[in-house]
Amino acid sequence: MHAFKAGDKVDYRVTWLEMRQRPSFGWPSLPVGREAMLVRADTPPWWYFLSLYDAVGRDYAWTDRHNTPREELNAWIQHADVALYTLIGAGWPQGFFVLDWREEGTCELAYFGLVPEAVGRGLGKWLLQSAIMTGWDREGIQKMTVNTCTLDHPRALAQYQRMGFSPVRTEIHSRVLIKDQVFKQPLL
């Protein structure tokens, strides 16, 4: 465990990954004993996106989108080539993903994650495979992209690679934390 205080400057590694062909795994089945559904939001307001973003990202220093002007955030999340999907299980949101097809031939998995209470219940792989298959279902897609960093869940990078994404570059970034944070992995 690596503990930091609000106001600490941290350096961390960002990895960009690509998938250049549709994966062979096909559409996933829910894990045995799990009931859940994916719901695509129709022109969601900015606050709905931020509520999911905050719920999933609270342990990973997801704060950047709070600096985006609300009009800009609304324009992005409501764009015809951007889709927000919410994982609903037991009647409440357990995760989400956002797909962005605005760049021709590319689908970016812009956001992906589970709320802490849903981690370890077998839904992560199902949700990620569903996101990937949904991304590739758009006609004309030649590659899918995603990025993750060492502030994210410790298994994120390996999970993306198991699904068929390959790293294409890494960079070291810095940020000042706005709240106390504990990270489960070294940041560099």
TrEMBL record:
Residues 37-188 form the N-acetyltransferase domain. InterPro entries: Acyl_CoA_acyltransferase, GNAT_dom. CDD domains: NAT_SF. Transmembrane segments: none annotated. Pfam families: Acetyltransf_1. One of its GO terms (molecular function) is acyltransferase activity, transferring groups other than amino-acyl groups. This is N-acetyltransferase domain-containing protein. It comes from Pararhodobacter oceanensis.
